[in-house]
């Protein structure tokens, strides 16, 4: 608590702060245009904000006050695996920075009270100023892929594959160019993950309904008008500084803004990096997507887990699979079931009657 020649004195218990692979992560930050002073200011100027949704592994999540970075606690094995990934992962991102893979900006360990708490700093996929009406964690598997009752009771639950098929059986419709660009990006990213023998990852898909937000603002009245936000009274944070940090930037190397999906009265900046889409009822949506949970290697434990599950259940429905099969199934589900090309000139008689953006749940 007395500090040192490098750190100021403080009123907390003694602790040690360790940084892993500082040179490698500095290269990562430079690749995405993050300046050292901005990075420190984002993480240290204000207290971090704890997020309510913890990961399946028990990880805790925090977000920086400027909405720029996610801070996640990781296990010792995950931290080790990430360090082994760094050289090849950097080469892939350097060649193709437009990716839906997570961007890792730093890996640290706080040693205090006999405990080691390891944290990784990543890009933030979901701006807090935009209300997410629906959120899904998708793997392309159906075995035990339905949100639990406990998860459904949360203020902002994360649903799973079977929930998506029930809520949006017709999928999400994208402009043809956008759909092509998204699928190409997913294909490249899956090849990278497959080359590292990584599996059990998910695609996080968060949906903001522009039309529902408009109805909510009208119902709230002018006094309670708070734009696209969650209604927490905060103003919209500044646009994210990191390059390629939004879903739109991650795929717009091939697909530029515009196309057959119009956002009408929304300006470009108001899209907040979301990908324009529609549901089968024609409602305007913004999608926020990214691949998550990639620090899982197909090691012996995973092989054993799949072998046991496959004995009891249909092997193709199990989410834990060999990396090549997992990647192929993941791509097929995302590009043919979740995301679909919007018809160029849909006939009114052929419009689907179902598939609302925010279905009512009992």
From TrEMBL:
Keywords: ATP-binding, Kinase, Nucleotide-binding, Transferase. InterPro entries: PInositol-4-P-4/5-kinase_C_sf (IPR027483), PInositol-4-P-4/5-kinase_core (IPR002498), PInositol-4-P-5-kinase_N (IPR027484), PInositol-4/5-P-5/4-kinase (IPR023610). Residues 216-235 have a biased composition (Basic and acidic residues). Residues 1-338 form the PIPK domain. Residues 216-236 are annotated as: Disordered. One of its GO terms (biological process) is phosphatidylinositol phosphate biosynthetic process. GO terms for cellular component: plasma membrane. It holds the Pfam family PIP5K. This is PI51A kinase. It comes from Vidua chalybeata.
């Amino acid at each position: 608590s007395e500090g040192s020649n490098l750190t100021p004195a403080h009123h907390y218990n003694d602790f040690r702060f360790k940084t892993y692979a500082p040179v490698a992560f500095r290269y990562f930050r430079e690749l995405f245009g993050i300046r050292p002073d901005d990075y420190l200011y984002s993480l240290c100027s204000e207290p971090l904000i704890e997020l309510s949704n913890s990961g399946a592994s028990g990880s805790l999540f925090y977000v920086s006050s400027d909405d720029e970075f996610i801070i996640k606690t990781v296990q010792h094995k995950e931290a080790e695996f990430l360090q082994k990934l760094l050289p090849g992962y950097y080469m892939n991102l350097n060649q193709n920075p437009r990716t839906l893979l997570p961007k890792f900006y730093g890996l640290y360990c706080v040693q205090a009270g006999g405990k080691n708490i390891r944290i990784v700093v990543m890009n933030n996929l979901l701006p807090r100023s935009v209300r997410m009406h629906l959120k899904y964690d998708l793997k392309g598997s159906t075995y035990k892929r339905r949100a639990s009752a406990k998860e459904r009771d949360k203020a902002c639950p994360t649903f799973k594959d079977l929930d998506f098929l029930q809520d949006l059986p017709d999928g999400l419709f994208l402009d043809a160019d956008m759909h092509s660009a998204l699928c190409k990006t997913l294909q490249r990213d899956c090849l990278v993950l497959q080359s590292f023998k990584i599996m059990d990852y998910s695609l996080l898909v968060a949906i903001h309904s522009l039309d529902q937000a408009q109805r909510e603002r009208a119902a709230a009245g002018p006094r309670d008008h708070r734009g696209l936000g969650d209604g927490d009274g905060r103003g919209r944070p500044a646009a994210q500084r990191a390059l390629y940090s939004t879903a739109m930037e991650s795929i717009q190397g091939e697909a530029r803004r515009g196309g057959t999906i119009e956002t009408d009265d929304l300006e470009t900046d108001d899209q907040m990096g979301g990908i324009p889409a529609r549901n089968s009822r024609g409602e305007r949506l913004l999608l926020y997507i990214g691949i998550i949970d990639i620090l899982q290697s197909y090691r012996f434990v995973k092989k054993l887990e799949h072998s046991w599950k496959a004995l009891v259940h249909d092997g193709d429905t199990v989410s834990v699979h060999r990396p090549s099969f997992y990647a192929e199934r993941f791509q097929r589900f995302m590009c043919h079931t979740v995301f679909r090309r919007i018809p160029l000139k849909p006939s009114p008689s052929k419009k689907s009657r179902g598939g609302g953006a925010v279905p009512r749940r009992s």
